[in-house]
User: What shape does this take?
Amino acid sequence: MDQMQLIKRAMEVRKGGEKAAIATIIRTKGSTPRKTGSRMIVFPCGRIEGTIGGGCGEAEVIEKALEVIQSNTPSQKRVDLTKGLFFEDGGICGGIMDVFIEPI
Amino acid sequence: MQLMSRNLFAQLEKSINNRKDTFLITITDYPDNKTLGAKALLWPDGGFCTDDSLLPQDVKDLLIAQCSKLVAKRRSGAVKFVWKDSKIECFAEYFPAPLHLIVAGAGHVCEPVAEMGRMLGFFVTVIDDREEFANRERFPFASEVVCQSYLHYFRNVDISEKTYILLLTRGHKYDVLSLNELLKRNSQAGYIGMIGSRRRISGVFKELQQDFPDESFDNLYTPVGLDIGAETPAEIAVSIMAEILKVKNQKSGNSLNTQIKKYAKMGFHEGAGKWTKCSS
Assistant: This one.
């Protein structure tokens, strides 16, 4: 089952003793590339598995996830996709999403 | 709190495999960092379990109450509430139970059907009353292989609109017997497909009409499958699974290009009938 896949993978990563963090979209508003419940695993080297939508928003989450791995404490990150390229003329770039990031 | 205990993860997997709708709850905001990220499972029947021993009972009760709207709507979402002047937020993620595909009759067609059923995310049960057919070696992909009489199986198995049943048995008397049990049940399956020739089908209906004169057989699809000229077991499986998806998704089953034809007058000709048929 698709939805379980990254959780399953995270459990494997933990079993293997590797450090990493998992990010989950818990809330979306407006138009976002991926839906609530989408996940992404981030490794300390910056490598990712899965995606929460790509682009600048994802990069911000990866940065935060590296902090989470360091501190070993879960955290939230709000990704604002409305401040995009065309924000000045009306914000065609979409919505806002809240992402919960936790150490594996 | 780190991700989730192996025990809780096993429970989540087991619950889904048992075809139960399940919610995974994550604490995403909490005054104490140690509880941040705590996980729990919640079921629509009110069942609750957590692997976090630090979670106070009144917070657990609040979690269940606050998530009840999402549970009723069977939707994922984040919920914020206040407990002893502190903000708590949780994310309740809905894991819908997979649809159940029951394939009665473990012959040639059953093999690709079981495999495709799994590919498409169904929980697939293969049932036959003969041990040499209903075994794991023949069906490595099935979620479950049952060797039991059709009568007993269909008398007792859970049936709901999430149940899809295929009758691919070796003789029409087994179809009659299975349908007899299914029609006696209080709940109706989402789909019942029965393979067979016109003669076999009319034989089945004749026998059933004696016991069920008023039955309209609304959800019975027979002969089974979409009209794509299927002949081999694999082709028949495609035809059957396409019909099942059509019913599940409530779509027409027509080629998508019939819609494109409307645009042909604008000069858009793709798939509009100019193709020469490939004969190989």
In short: Chain B has a mean pLDDT of 90.
